[in-house]
């Protein structure tokens, strides 16, 4: 499976000019790795016009609404994303869940994105760090509720990110997870996916890790954690760090 690295810019940078400049630099820096790695930039909605600047990178959004059109002030539809060349969409990020997004909402968004042929990047992860906890019930619950009721054939476009909330760099006191735990969580998540969407699709579903990934730990998460890629927040805004992450994974 070709490795996948997704840059989650969150609500950054401040201006369109900065966004274009960052996108251009990252696109140039990653050119030599594009045969080995798919890199997705997920900027905020107002900067989704980056397509012309990003050469061989792909474009992702950080959220989407589930209705196709209509009177939904402030929301953005799958069709609007697709018309801008967006092919990936992050769904259920913990920062959106913290703002009140429930598993039912996540399920609707996931269904809408998959139905529209977008690659849906579902983020799951437990809020509290618990050593030796087997499969965190929160992660199981999220997967069960959020994949429910979606026709199985649509899951070919599913990507799952294991992103423990306590490992996200902007969370106070956060620390990155370790590759061993990520490896175990990857197995547990895939096992759960087998139950929920069937073996063939579960085996083909990329599972990524996210949470304080930087140029120093990225390769270990992929090599020893055996994930299919990474979701990168803070470090994706620092061009050198981000290119360093892509390089280190390409060199594995
Ligand atoms: P981080 O963010 O890499 O800054 O920890 C990851 C994310 O929230 O997706």
Q: Report the bound ligands by name, code or SMILES.
A: 2-phosphoglycolic acid
Number of strands: 8
Instruction: Give the N-to-C terminal Cα separation.
Output: 13 Å
The helix count comes to 9
Structure report:
This protein has 252 residues and is of the alpha/beta class. It has helices at 16-30, 78-83, 94-97, 103-115, 137-147, 179-197, 199-204, 218-223, 239-250, and strands at residues 3-8, 37-42, 58-61, 88-91, 119-124, 158-162, 207-210, 229-232. Strands 1-2-3-4-5-6-7-8 form an 8-stranded parallel beta barrel, surrounded by 4 helices. Helix 1 packs parallel to helix 9 (239-250) and helix 4 packs across helix 5. 2-phosphoglycolic acid binds at residues 8, 163, 168-170, 210-213, 231-235.
Which helices and strands, and how do they pair?
Blueprint (H helix, E strand, L loop, with lengths): L2 E6 L7 H15 L6 E6 L15 E4 L16 H6 L4 E4 L2 H4 L5 H13 L3 E6 L12 H11 L10 E5 L16 H19 L1 H6 L2 E4 L7 H6 L5 E4 L6 H12 L2
Parallel strand pairs: 1-2, 1-8, 2-3, 3-4, 4-5, 5-6, 6-7, 7-8
Helix pairs in contact: 1-9, 4-5, 5-6
Give a brief rundown of this model.
With 252 residues, this protein is an alpha/beta fold.
Which features would summarize this protein structure in a list?
alpha/beta; eight-stranded parallel barrel; single chain; 8 strands; binds 2-phosphoglycolic acid; 252 residues
